[in-house]
User: Fold these one by one.
Assistant:
Number 1:
Amino acid sequence: MISKRAESFTSFIVMDVMAKAEELERKGEHVIHLEVGEPDFSTPKVIMRAATSALSNNKTRYTHALGLLELRQAICDFYFKEYGVNITSDQVLVSTGTSPALLFAMLAILDHGDEVIISNPRYPCYQNFILAAGGKIKEVKTYPEEGFQYRPQDIKKKLSPRTKAILINSPSNPTGIVMSKDQLQSMTQFDKQYIISDEIYHGLVYQGRAHSILEFTDKAFVINGFSKLYAMTGWRLGYCIFPKEFTQVMQRIHQNFMISANGFIQWAGIAALTKAQKDVTKMIRIYDERRKYMLARLKDMGFVIHVEPTGAFYVFADARCFCTDSYKEAFRIIEEVKVGVTPGIDFGSAGEGFLRFSYANSLENIKEGLNRLEIYLSKDY
Ligand code: PMP
């Protein structure tokens, strides 16, 4: 019998859209993918070369459970250079993506029945990491006009003696919105809870810069990785930075459940952090060009953009003037004009009536996709 816990895991609705796209593609249709949250760029060559060189040098064994010391040190140096924060290599766990790193952070802090605050809307997998670790989610509704940021007074209303952590994500998936310094600072008033800060979209910021939660508090778990900024989704490499008292427990958790992250890929991670800046700068320039184009076209078509997204590669567009059921709408769009978009409901009930558009696709494809969407909107269905 399937466990109640496994039954409680929600599915990723965007996968349904992708399955539909695949079905259409098998029939020979040309689908434009604006639903996927994955860079369309190849991994920079300098990173590829580091991986092949590590392979030819037999870097094919287990590493330290927390990760290669050289990579952990490079992560510490990176956080010092970017944010001026001092962390040490015993505060870093390298894992096979940010996803397992987040699960292990939850396992480290949650006892059965402990609560974690998450926003509504948010990245759809968060609740499942919490449930997997025996925790409970406490949702806090956020509002489009406020860039879907937490209202601290609403967090306070949800706190209980069992609340262990508050999860934040900036730049955010699905909104692309970057938290300001003040918004991050205001999170530190919750000093009895850990702040879990998903910083995976850091670096992909097109105006100003993103701040790390570690600039404001040490009582935090940072989740970050290589998938997005370095176009390395398939490599599976990410990390967690945690308070010092968790070193041994994180090491024990990782020893048991993963042994270690992939050896040669960790060497490639060092190259990403230290040698790929030129490639990253180029990708950022291209993303920004697409972002501006997409925003202008969506606004022209009547979508409402309450707060301009300046990070990640998403636009979370308010489609409530013509759409009440975002799931049905996304399917109608892909069936009628063969454009994949992600329904807002995927990110929680407060995302209903919104559609998430990803600009991790070429400008040419984005143009074609938006042209098709314009035709779709001009018809009465
Ligand atoms: N957090 C957010 C907000 C994401 O969008 C993603 C990927 N879609 C992840 C975490 C997981 O990334 P990965 O496991 O590839 O590092």
Number 2:
Amino acid sequence: MADDKRVVVLVSGHGSNLQALLDAAAERGSGMTVVLVGADRPGAFGLERARRAGVDTAVVRPADHPDRPSFDLALRDVVAAARPDVVCLAGFMRILGPAFVGAFSDRILNTHPSLLPAFRGAHAVRDALAYGVKVTGCTVHLVDEQVDHGPVLFQAAVPVEPGDDEDRLHGRIKQEEHRLLPLAVRLVAEGRVRVEGRRARIVAAEEVAR
Ligand code: GRF
């Protein structure tokens, strides 16, 4: 709908979190529309999910740019052209630089498959299993200029079960991400998240205009 909040989602892979967002946005009265899905590689299955949902797609490949800052600027321009209220990193496996983060500050969300600050980086589930933790989970957080670092919005704990391998454990973690990420996107889109230092505070809808 015309006054829906505009959501841009960036993906690198399978896109199950993107699917959760597409499904949430498709619910009647959701108040949000996914207006663009961007990827850093043309083979990302998330792009196919977007096409099936009738959502515009864009691919910005690092290899087409001479260095990280120019990739960052190119991606920023593509995303900015979609006029997002929220930018959501849903399995986007690139580090975003200051030009990108500064353009959408306090409006970029990421989901990470561990209870941050434990197990940052690209192999969080594998690293948690290797460490032998009994509980891990996911973190939905605002993005700042450091990797897997910005203010935390939501976390959910997921117990490690005997016999878990990376896929099985990650599958259960993703179930929690699919629940929390659409919720977080909606709150940021509605302006209901106030950032004070490291703390992200959720305010009541009536407080938004104040
Ligand atoms: C998620 O677990 C997310 O936390 C991590 O990458 C995974 C992406 O999964 N950053 P999918 O592509 O959404 O299925």
Number 3:
Amino acid sequence: MRHIVLRTALACAAWWGLAGCGRTVPADGELAVIPQPASVGLAEGSFLLSARSPIVVGMEGAEPVARALDQVGEALFGRPLRRADSPAAGAVVLRRDTALAGEAYALTVSPEGIDIAAGSPAGAFYAVQTLRQLLPPEAFGAGDVRRAEIPCLTIVDEPCMRYRGVMLDAARHFFTVDEVKRLLDILALHKINTFHWHLTDDQGWRIEIRKYPRLTEFGSVRTRTLIGRDPGGEYDETCRFDETPYGGFYTQQEIRDVVAYAAERFITVIPEIEFPGHAVSALASYPWLGCTGEQYEVRQTWDIDDRVYCPGKETTFEFIENVLAEVAELFPGPYVHIGGDECPMTYWKGCPHCRARMRSEGLTHWRQLQNYSTARLERFLNARGKQLIGWDEILEGEVTPTATIMSWRGTEGGIRAARQGNYAIMSPGTYCYFDHAQAVGEGEPLSWGGYLPVDKVYAFDPCAGLTPGERRFILGVQANLWTEYIADFDHLQYMLLPRLSALVETAWSLDRKDWEDYRRRVDRLRRLYDACGYNYARHLWAE
Ligand code: TNX
């Protein structure tokens, strides 16, 4: 459907006549869906969606999809849509089609109504997200529309990659449950199916663990925050700090609430509990978790920290397994992420417990202490029906064949994983780190790391360098929102949009990417962002 421009058959004046009282919003003449669907067949005519269009839920488990349609109704007409038991004129029908794969859908708009056939409720949900982009963006918002026009067409669509993720670092800066939900709404619009929630780090522990209350009482608050550029270890009087104590955490009830909200949008939540590095907030709460037993403060600056868990002591494993047991209960999804990145071994090398562990386990390299720990946590998680994910550092030394690797230091880790038969998710800093700047110049907020403009995000090929056989092990791609310098939700949206729309074309539409066509389509998506009140970077349009 390259560059298809629809011409509305009727002049606007006639529309007003047809509509009677209330606004009728005509189709805006352009068909532009992101991510690019697999196939689009345009037909004659159009359908008028109105508050009187009933939903027919002819598919088990599709109530959340009907509720997503209700939200469309709210945004357009100021009220949810009605339900009907059998297809009637003007209805939106949801039905299962066993010929379609799990996340696939076929969306048919005809003058008589809308038919959504899908392999599962998830597929039907994606059809609704497509439908939102077929409606005129200007119809969203005030809830004062009487009828909205949609062009007649058939879209048959399914994703190229099964894992489409976004990670939020809620440790460096905290985002409220309400903000996380608004983020999930944005992810849903982009057909993202995984939310990776980074819940613990040096600068704050953000998840309530019943057995260890000090983690949140003490470990969730730092006394101040570095707000200037990180000098990389030399923190002298030239550094700028915000001297206000900073904290926040999610109660288990709140976690459940977010998980349910995500499930309603067919998004699986993966919790990340960092081990054995990025652990200062835990060690500050329970000093016996570290090699020396020293009392630390929750970290106030960024970057890598030497103060990590002691894998020599049994009490450390007792702790982390008790934590993971509560986490496994809270998150119904198949994965638990144990971090594993950037773990210096400085303290291990001087620790009698670590040395004793090396001896008793017959380990010859210090890094094997991490391999040993990861394998042990994997056994623990597997026994609870969960699979382990870790950052690509868990590949150093050796890793079990069943761990899933998240490749962030380039795609090399993912390639290595795929070659040895481990599943991998590609999230390289060079293409997927949305904490990096997307533009240069005055007014651009302080950011971490390199330069990642939207065209570079779009150019990402997660399967480069892999044979077709190896590609099977690449589950998908993920954008990472590290938040050292992202302190509020407005800024978070700015870093995410529109770059997410570029990355999701790689995840969903890998075999049909076209930068020029994307640029045309994203122009329309931007109008939907405006209608939804999302904050986004405008550089793409300023070029
Ligand atoms: C590296 S990516 C980290 C994070 C930082 C990020 C900043 C990864 C597994 N670790 O701790 O926040 O760089 O871009």
Number 4:
Amino acid sequence: MLVLVLNSGSSSIKYQLLEPDSGTVSASGLVSRIGEDVGPGEPTIEHHGRGGEIVHTGPIPDHAAGLKLVFGLFAADGQDLATAGLAAAGHRVVHGGEVFYRPTLITDEVLATIRDLSSLAPLHNPANVIGIECAMRLLPGVPQVAVFDTAFFHGLPAAAKTYAVDAGIAAKFGIRRYGFHGTSHEYVSGQAAAFLGRRPEDVNQIVLHLGNGASGSAIRAGRAVDTTMGMTPLEGLVMGTRSGDLDPGIILHLERNGLDVAEIDVLLNRESGLKGLSGINDFRELHAHMESGDAAARLAYDVYIHRLRHYIGAYLIELGRVDVITFTGGVGENSSQVRFDALAGLERFGIAIDPQLNDVRNRSAHRISKSDSEIAVLVVPTNEELAIARAAADLVRPG
Ligand code: ADP
């Protein structure tokens, strides 16, 4: 059984062709800089197939052109998608609103609703829709399945999902906390429970997904009860380029002082977070700058860790009993310093990291807490593509 997974962003498409049961990936790649000016010879598609890497250079005018080229690369690599017998195409869709909370077979009606939800996710849903439309055209007869980033948080308790604003206004404009990165939080929490040899229903967990975007979640007995991202992916933790939590008064202040909505949007989504504080949004570079005494890099790091610890503390109290804390995402999986600083000095709360285990580089799920740490601390690689492929396969599998 083969599933093609597509994650379409505003100027990129990430894809993977994989076997959902075994997780074997037969090809993967990235189309980047869609719709941008690109000089001749500049790489815009990196395709990793059976025959190694193929690089496509030159401009990609739009998503449809990009996907067509990708299909050509698959064929050139001996894996023609039209004849591969795809069981499904699985699409990452960022916002499912109140409507979608489980993997959903895409019909024209479903697609129209995803498009309507664009007002809640203007940076993401329109690109997801374009990716789906292209795939529907290029793969007639192959079931298309949408897997929503918000789904895992659909059942957040009312107290966790409600903002304390006028209830009528909130209802009118869809203002509530939805949460994002749900596919990753669900997958990683399942892996963490399995690592401990327990059922998800029997464990309480905190999952910290730290990548370019970053979010945390509190999970009680397999169900998400809180998460750091809110109505949009801007709330919560400090991220590579996003501010995370702010006093909402700051936005009013900026607007009163002449910044318009588009400028504030760019400021908070693309020019804030680690980048806004230090000019750097990649953690490897940030660590190097901190070591060379860069004070702005140090402050950015300290603000990042401060916010992370704030939420870890909140979730420890909210859950009451926590069995496992898990780090995932590019930063969570790779930065031992972030993991150590996030949980340092919490022995009295039952958390004791083993510095040696924490420094071991290991690409599979592993434990980094001391054997007598009451709360286990794990590193678990996330794999959203596999989770999407499995969700799509489960939906279309007969019986
Ligand atoms: P995305 O949110 O885009 O999926 P990832 O989860 O891939 O991002 O995380 C990307 C980030 O992971 C990079 O910006 C970088 O800061 C961080 N990262 C990757 N490798 C390392 C490393 N070896 N050490 C520290 N940070 C790393």
